[in-house]
Design goal:
The complex is a heterodimer of chains A (435) and B (163). Chain A has 435 residues and is mostly helical. Helix content of chain A is 61%, strand content 5%. Chain A has a domain of 304 residues. In chain A, the strands form 2 sheets. Chain A has a two-stranded antiparallel ribbon with strand order 1-2. Helices cover 76% and strands 0% of the residues of chain B. Chain B is built from 6 helices and no strands. The N and C termini of chain B lie far apart (65 Å). The chains are: A mainly alpha (435), B mainly alpha (163). Chains A and B meet through α4 and α5 of A and α2 and α3 of B. Chain A: It comes from Rhizocola hellebori. Chain A: Belongs to the complex I subunit 1 family. Chain A: NDH-1 is composed of 14 different subunits. Subunits NuoA, H, J, K, L, M, N constitute the membrane sector of the complex.
Chain lengths: 435, 163
C-alpha cells in the first residue's frame, strides 16, 4: 500500500510534468507565506501588529514586495565580474528547487485516474541528493560575494563558505544515524521505516519503541536541527549577512530580481531542511499518534499532505522563534561550536549506536551488554571529566614586566574599569531612600 | 554504439575540455569554476555507468567541499577580478609531462583492456560499495585513513605557533 522505491519511475510524462509544477508552486507559495509568517510571528513576539495592509491579515504583503522588487532598477557594479555575478543567484535558486524533488508529500493518490505516489521521484541515495544540492548551493553565495568586486560581500562569502562546509559535515553525520536505523537512504523507505515501532530488549526487559526517529535518535535530531540553522544562514547563525558588521553580507551589491532570487533561495532552503527533518525524524507525511486512532483513512489519499504541511509549519515556527529570541553568535564561537562540539558529539553518538546495533545482531546475553555499555560509559566519562592542564599561575605585575622579551616595551596592564555613566548613577541615587 | 556510449563520450569530452580550460584560463577564480565543471562531468559519467552512490558522493565531496575550500583559500589570499598576467609558466616542460602522462595512461588503458568485454554490473548501491570497501579492500582503506590522519596531525603541527 505504501510507496516503496520500486514504485517510482513508472509515471506518464504529463504526470511527471504535473508533479514538477506542483512542487514548484508549493515552494513558491510556501516562500511567500513563510515571509509573511515570519514577519507576523516576529512582530507578535515584539508586541507590534506586523504587516496588515495588503489582503486579509496582510497575507499579500510578500507578493507586493516581490512585485516591487521586480520593477526596481537592476544595478551592476562597475568592478563586478559580469558572468559570475549573473550566475550566482541562478545557482542558488536552482539548487534550492532541485533538493525538494525527493521529499515525500504522501502515499498513493489518484491524479485523473492514474495511481501515483505523492512525491516527484525517489532514488536509492535520495538523501545524498539533498546534501549534494546544499553543497552546490554554497557556490551561489561564495561566487556572489566574490563577483560583486566589493569588500563586504567578499567577507560575507568567505564566512558563509567556511560556515556551510563546517555545518554540512555535522548535518551529514547526524543523518548517518537515520541511515543506520532505516537501512536505506531513500526517503520513501525511511518514511515507511518509521511507520511501526519495533520490539527492543534491554537488560531482559521487552518493550515496544515508537517509530519516529525523533524519539529514537534524539541526539541526532538535536544535532540536525542546530546544523540546519547553521546551514541555512539563519539567525542566530546568520553571520554571512550580519547586518551590523557586513551591511548585507554577500548580497550587498544585488538589487531587483537577482536579490529576489537570493531571498527565494534562502526561504526555500528553510522549507527544504524543515521538510527533510519532517521526513527523516518526524515520521514524514504520517499522522501523529492521537489522529491515527480515528481510522486508517488518515494515512490515505490526500490527507497526509495536511499532516506534512502542519509539521512543516511547526518547524518553520521554530526557525522564526530562534530568530526572535537569540542574539547572533560571534564568528569564532560559532566555528568552535561546530567543530569542537557538534562533530565530536555526533561521532560518539554514531559509535554508540553502531555498537548497540551490533549487540542486537550478535544477540549477546544481557550481562554482556551491560558490561559493554558500562565500559563505554566509563571511558566516555573519563574523557569528559579528565582533569585539564592547570593554567600557568598569574605573575605579579613587576615580575611580568621584568620577564618581557629583550628590547620590548612594557605594556600597560589590561585592567580598565569602565566608569559608571552619570545617568546610571543618577538613577541609582534616585532609587536610594533619602535618610 | 548505444545512446549511453554516445553520452559517455560527449560528457567525457566536456570533462577533458573543461580540464584544459582550468589550466589555460587567465582568470584565477574561473579556473576553479572550470574545475567544478570537470568534476561535475565525472560525476555524470558515474551516473551514466549506473553508479549512483559514487556519483552523488563525488558531487558532495569534490564539487561541494573540496573546490569550495580551494576557492575559499584563493579568496582569502587574493582573488582578482579579471585577467592575471603572472600566472603563466614556460609551456614546454608542462606540455611534455602532461601530454606524456595523459597519452601514456590512455594508451596503457586502451592496450590492457583492448579485448576485454565487461558486462555492465548491477546498479552501484551504497551496500555494494560498502561490502567492497570493508570486505575486499579493508586494508588499503585503513591505510588511507591513517594517511589522512597523519596529514591532519601535520596540518595542526604546522599551524601551531612556536611557544
Amino acid at each position: 500500500m505504501n510507496p516503496t522505491l520500486a514504485d517510482f519511475g513508472h509515471d506518464n510524462g504529463w504526470i511527471v510534468a504535473l508533479k514538477v509544477v506542483g512542487v514548484f508552486v508549493f515552494l513558491v507559495v510556501m516562500t511567500l507565506f513563510t515571509i509573511w509568517y515570519e514577519r507576523k510571528v516576529v512582530a507578535r513576539m515584539q508586541v507590534r501588529p506586523g504587516p496588515n495592509r495588503h489582503g486579509p491579515f496582510g497575507l499579500l504583503q510578500s507578493l507586493a514586495d516581490g512585485l516591487k522588487l521586480a520593477f526596481k532598477e537592476d544595478i551592476m557594479p562597475l568592478k563586478a565580474d559580469r558572468v559570475v555575478f549573473f550566475l550566482a543567484p541562478v545557482i542558488s535558486t536552482v539548487c534550492a528547487f532541485t533538493a525538494f524533488a525527493i521529499i515525500p508529500f504522501g502515499p498513493f493518490v489518484s491524479i485523473f485516474g492514474q495511481k501515483t505516489p505523492l512525491q516527484l521521484t525517489d532514488i536509492p541515495v535520495a538523501v545524498l541528493l539533498v546534501l549534494a544540492c546544499s553543497g552546490l548551493g554554497i557556490y551561489g553565495i561564495v561566487l556572489s560575494g566574490w563577483a560583486s568586486g566589493s569588500t563586504y560581500p567578499l567577507l560575507g562569502g568567505l564566512r558563509s563558505s567556511a560556515q556551510m562546509i563546517s555545518y554540512e559535515v555535522a548535518m551529514g553525520l547526524s543523518i548517518v544515524a537515520v541511515f543506520m536505523m532505516a537501512g536505506t537512504m531513500s526517503t520513501s523507505e525511511i518514511v515507511n521505516a518509521q511507520a511501526k515501532g519495533g520490539q527492543g530488549e534491554l537488560f531482559g526487559f521487552e518493550f515496544t519503541y515508537p517509530g519516529w526517529y525523533v524519539l529514537l535518535l534524539l541526539p541526532s535530531f538535536v544535532i540536525y536541527a542546530i546544523s540546519a540553522v547553521g546551514e541555512t544562514n539563519r539567525a542566530p547563525f546568520d553571520l554571512p549577512e550580519a547586518e551590523s558588521e557586513l551591511v548585507g553580507g554577500f548580497h550587498t551589491e544585488y538589487s531587483s530580481l537577482k536579490f529576489a532570487l537570493f531571498f527565494l533561495a534562502e526561504y526555500i532552503n528553510m522549507v527544504t531542511v524543515s521538510a527533510l527533518a519532517t521526513t527523516l525524524f518526524l515520521g514524514g507525511w504520517r499522522a501523529p499518534w492521537p489522529i491515527t486512532q480515528l481510522g486508517p483513512w488518515v494515512n490515505q489519499g490526500w490527507w497526509p499532505l495536511l499532516w506534512f504541511t502542519i509539521k512543516l509549519l511547526i518547524l518553520l515556527f521554530v526557525f522564526v522563534w530562534l530568530r526572535g529570541t537569540l542574539p547572533r553568535l560571534r564568528y569564532d564561537q560559532f566555528m568552535r561550536f561546530g567543530w569542537k562540539v557538534l562533530i565530536p558529539a555526533s561521532l560518539i553518538w554514531i559509535l554508540a549506536l553502531a555498537g548497540f546495533k551490533t549487540m542486537n545482531n550478535e544477540n549477546l546475553p544481557g550481562w554482556q551488554r551491560g558490561l559493554w555499555i558500562g565500559g563505554f560509559a566509563v571511558i566516555l566519562l573519563a574523557i569528559l571529566l579528565w582533569p585539564r592542564k592547570r593554567p600557568a599561575p598569574k605573575l605579579p605585575l613587576e615580575e611580568e614586566v621584568a620577564q618581557r622579551p629583550e628590547g620590548s616595551f612594557p605594556l600597560p596592564p589590561i585592567d580598565l574599569q569602565v566608569p559608571v555613566s552619570p545617568r546610571a548613577k543618577r538613577i541609582t541615587a534616585d532609587r536610594e531612600p533619602v535618610q | 554504439m548505444t545512446a549511453i556510449d554516445v553520452m559517455l563520450s560527449a560528457v567525457g569530452l566536456v570533462a577533458v575540455g573543461s580540464a584544459l580550460a582550468v589550466v589555460s584560463t587567465q582568470h584565477l577564480v574561473r579556473a576553479g569554476l572550470w574545475l567544478v565543471v570537470t568534476l561535475g562531468a565525472v560525476a555524470v559519467e558515474f551516473l551514466l555507468l549506473r553508479a549512483e552512490f559514487v556519483a552523488w558522493v563525488q558531487v558532495l565531496i569534490y564539487v561541494g567541499a573540496v573546490v569550495v575550500l580551494l576557492l575559499f583559500a584563493v579568496m582569502l589570499t587574493r582573488a582578482p577580478i579579471g585577467r592575471s598576467t603572472d600566472l603563466d609558466r614556460p609551456i614546454g616542460p608542462a606540455l611534455l609531462i602532461g601530454a606524456g602522462s595523459g597519452l601514456g595512461l590512455a594508451g596503457l588503458f586502451a592496450w590492457v583492456f583492448r579485448d576485454m568485454r565487461v558486462n555492465p554490473p548491477p546498479t552501484g548501491s551504497a551496500q555494494r560499495v560498502g561490502e567492497a570497501i570493508f570486505g575486499d579492500w579493508v586494508l588499503p582503506f585503513e591505510v588511507l585513513s591513517v594517511l589522512l590522519l597523519a596529514a591532519l596531525v601535520g596540518a595542526i603541527v604546522l599551524s601551531k605557533k612556536d611557544t
